[in-house]
């Protein structure tokens, strides 16, 4: 008898597709950037401003989008957000000035800003605790896969039609995903006709739990006390990630001398390494937890190894003279950086449970703040020094600081734990699961 696909795995597949599309829409501007810069006569600082315009509303929408998903459910909220970013992507193809580009990237940031916290909130009632690392890892690996395939996809459309047509096509795909999500997703397992009682038990969900949680008051102060350090580490992580997402094609072209055809391959390689890192980080974290029962070790070990490993490889990349070696070192550095991503997104679920949308927004505000500063600072320092060395050294320093800070993160200190409580033995976790 053919085994029935679990409903939560179908939903996970739809969310993977969202992450994939969202990152294509986020990264496409950096691939088209050199051509847009040439056509519109932009300086490095102006291009950096276009890159960073996305990050300002992105940062603001993190907490707001997460809170809205906690209160009104992730289905309605994510439909609205995905329509906004899909339309913004499509309209970018009509842009004729720096101001128009900035405004459309701003709108894209509004749409995508609340999307990932909302997706995290969606997993609260759909993913068992022991599958959360994998769920966050595989979805974010699809995000990196989207970033990795963006250069060849966008460059192929540019070569045959033009950079504007690339945004027309990608915007239409985003709107099509919205229709799929609206058809498949429900806020909780008890709202989905396809979910069996056996799967409900596997998930650990109690009927009506989602509806009760929506009526609960948000514990803002306690959430901030539990999440501020996670937010800081996410900032350190996000600084380097923004460099890859915005300046990598320009760096490989300007500093390493790759032509347009080579860019498609050598921009994709580091991002493909991130695809592997994302999934592996989540799988390793879940496996450590299953074998040891120690959630702090499962999350903290991967965080530290990932950030420290990224630092180890980025420093020699800066000083190597060989262009291909630089790409290899960039790929290894990005692989280790992405080991941490699934863990960072699992922590809001671990710590906040039914308030994971708000907590995920708090955490990813660090990434949004990094996005405000990193692309502009990178462009400014390149113009000031005529080199990429100093900007990359700053990234390396933040990786080291983030690795040290990650040692003090404790997912056992949940919002249900008293401020002076040191968890030991059994504890209540998330939305009612008992963990050793």
From TrEMBL:
Domain of life the protein comes from: Bacteria
Transmembrane regions listed in the UniProt entry: 7-24, 44-65, 77-104, 166-184, 227-245, 265-285, 297-319, 325-347, 359-382, 388-409
GO molecular function: transmembrane transporter activity
Membrane-related topology note: Multi-pass membrane protein
UniProt entry keywords in alphabetical sequence: Cell membrane, Membrane, Transmembrane, Transmembrane helix
GO cellular component: plasma membrane
Cellular location(s): Cell membrane
Alphabetized InterPro entries for the sequence: MFS, MFS_dom, MFS_Na/Anion_cotransporter, MFS_trans_sf, Sugar_P_transporter
Location of the Major facilitator superfamily (MFS) profile domain: 11-414
Protein name as annotated: MFS transporter
Species, as recorded: Pandoraea terrae
């Amino acid at each position: 008898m053919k085994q029935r696909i679990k409903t939560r795995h179908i939903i996970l597949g739809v969310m993977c597709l969202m992450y994939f599309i969202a990152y294509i829409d986020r990264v496409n501007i950096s691939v088209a950037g050199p051509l847009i810069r040439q056509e519109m006569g932009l300086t490095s600082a102006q291009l950096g401003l276009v890159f960073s315009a996305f990050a300002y509303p992105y940062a603001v929408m993190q907490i707001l989008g997460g809170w809205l998903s906690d209160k009104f459910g992730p289905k309605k909220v994510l439909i609205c957000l995905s329509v906004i970013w899909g339309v913004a992507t499509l309209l970018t193809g009509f842009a004729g000035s720096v101001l128009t580009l900035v405004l459309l990237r701003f709108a894209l940031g509004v749409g995508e800003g609340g999307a990932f916290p909302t997706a995290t909130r969606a997993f609260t009632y759909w993913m068992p605790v022991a599958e959360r690392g994998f769920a966050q890892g595989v979805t974010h690996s699809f995000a990196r896969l989207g970033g990795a395939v963006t250069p060849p996809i966008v460059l192929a459309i540019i070569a045959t039609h033009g950079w504007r047509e690339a945004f027309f096509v990608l915007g239409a795909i985003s709107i099509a995903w919205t229709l799929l999500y609206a058809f498949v997703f429900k806020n909780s397992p008890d709202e989905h006709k396809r979910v069996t009682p056996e799967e409900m038990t596997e998930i650990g969900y109690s009927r009506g739990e989602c509806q009760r949680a929506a009526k609960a008051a948000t514990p803002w102060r306690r959430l901030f006390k539990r999440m501020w350090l996670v937010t800081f580490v996410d900032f350190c992580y996000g600084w380097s990630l923004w460099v890859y997402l915005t300046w990598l094609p320009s760096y490989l072209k300007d500093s390493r001398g790759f032509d347009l055809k080579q860019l498609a391959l050598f921009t994709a390689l580091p991002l493909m390494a991130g695809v592997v890192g994302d999934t592996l980080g989540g799988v390793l974290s879940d496996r450590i937890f299953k074998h040891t029962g120690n959630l702090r070790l499962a999350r903290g070990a991967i965080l530290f190894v990932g950030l420290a490993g990224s630092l180890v490889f980025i420093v020699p990349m800066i000083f190597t003279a060989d262009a291909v070696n630089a790409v290899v070192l960039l790929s290894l550095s990005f692989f280790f950086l992405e080991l941490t991503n699934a863990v960072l997104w699992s922590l809001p679920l671990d710590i906040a449970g039914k308030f994971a949308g708000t907590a995920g927004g708090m955490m990813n505000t660090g990434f949004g703040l990094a996005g405000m500063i990193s692309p502009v600072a990178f462009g400014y320092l390149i113009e000031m020094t005529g080199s990429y060395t100093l900007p990359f050294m700053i990234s390396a320093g933040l990786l080291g600081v983030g690795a040290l800070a990650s040692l003090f993160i404790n997912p056992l200190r949940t919002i249900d734990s008293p401020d002076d409580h040191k968890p030991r033995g059994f504890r209540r976790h998330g939305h009612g699961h008992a963990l050793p």
